[in-house]
Amino acid sequence: MLEYMDLDRSVPVWPQVADELRRRLDAGRYKPGERFPAVNELASELDVAPSTVQKAVAALRKEGRLYTVLGQGSFVKGDE
Predict the structure, then answer these.
(1) How many CB atoms are located within 10 Å of the residue 28 CB?
(2) What is the pTM of this model?
(3) Which CATH class is domain 14-76?
(4) Which of 58, 72, 78, 80 lies deepest, with the highest CB count within 10 Å?
């Protein structure tokens, strides 16, 4: 499902992408333990550079909302 964001490109884009991904997590679009979409997939879907999505995903990891398994990708952290 393609969803285009209305981005304000006069300010840094990655925080806007992080906000959109937080909204999706809060809405339950991605369930705890579920594999989070790949960076390239999200970049294509949101029409932004992969590096922009990488920064947003890094922010969500730092917040404890995602975790990464080397060689497997990022996953949604549960409320354990």
Answers:
(1) 9
(2) 0.86
(3) mainly alpha
(4) 58
